[in-house]
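User: quick one, fold this
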Amino acid sequence: MSDELIAIEQHAADAMRKAIQFLETELVKIRAGKSNPQMLDGLSVDYYGSPMPVNQVANISVLDARTLSIQPWEKNMLQPIERAIIAANMGFTPQNDGSLIRIFMPPLTEERRKELVKKCQSEGEQSKVAIRNIRRDSIEQVKKLRRNGLSEDVAKGGETAIQEITDKHIALVDKHLASKEKEIMSV
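Assistant:
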């Protein structure tokens, strides 16, 4: 097997692994009934005119299973953090007591759980599309090698190997989705 073919397969596997890692970070942000500081990872706060991630202007901690505490490092950041949480429309309302912000996670209704499952499936489908695009690009590179003199049998073997890598990563996406769906739907 040629070194170029091995490099193509390795690149495809690495890119697909990154797609899986991205899916994992996105699924963590979708709440499943219990509080998790990572739910606020995508939240930006206006910090003196420039957007900053909330975890860089405040300490976020879990008080109990349904309560998050956000303690800004500067008192004047309470209002911008509160506004950012409200504007993000995450399904909960912040409680500002003058020194810190508490977020109480309301119990999820059946309807909200189904919406969250749909959101998870949407994220999973985006990951599958990304993985399939990586497969398509990799197979195009193999075909290009075949046009440049690689034997047809070796090229077919390379395409088969890329398809096996793709199938493995698609199964991993399905496994993550099933796990997250079970977590969301359990009361």
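User: anything notable?
Assistant: The domain at 37-104 is CATH 3.30.1360.40 (Gyrase A; domain 2).
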